[in-house]
Amino acid sequence: MSLCSHKDGISIRIPPRAARVLAAVALGALVSGCASPGGRMAGENDPLEPLNRAVFRFNDAADRNFVKPAAKAYNKHVPAPVRKGIRNFFRNAFEPTVIVNDFLQGKIKQGLADGWRFAINTTVGLLGFIDVASKLGLEPHKEDFGQTLAKWGVGEGPYLVLPFLGPSNLRDGLGLIPYYRYTNPLSTVDDREAALLLLTAEGISVRADLLGTEAILEQAALDRYRFVREAYRQKRLSLIHDGRPPLDYELED
Hints:
This protein is mainly α.
């Protein structure tokens, strides 16, 4: 995987061979039934745990030494209203992905509402810096290609920790391919430096919003890796089922 520029903009390219391997493994997971959107997926589905833990430690070190200090400086020096506007801007930039996946999942009414939300915030809301649509009752939704694959019956596959991106699984990793190739707003930016600047700004904005949650993680987790893994699974299950996950799902102790 690499970030590269071309005449249509900035995109993340997946080597064809790697894409075929990922697709084959995902198909195998689906056929064998090793995972399902409503099944219990705690503990037994992390065959790459040694590698995942190594990537987890790498991400943690990068965060402690670079990302977290930048997020703290951002919170300290950027006024709260400006931070809110930046947060709104990036949320609005993600809306095309939400809209596409609304329709792919058959959520026609929600897709139309999210389309109006994007149109209003992009125009009246000045490229999304002002969330006008929420004040009009058009609340945001979270839909992505990983959720769509789950709705289509694709099993989650083995748990993965991706460099810099953090917790994921094979299904959600496959979902990144159409996102980065087609609906990622950076794919429309011709200037590579500008694209990297926007990517960095988005990462710092997201990390700044998480600064207040660290105490919970530190106090609650004897094993931070396992805590993050199960929290990710629970969050994804909730998103896939629109906040109503199946009752038979159990988290690992």
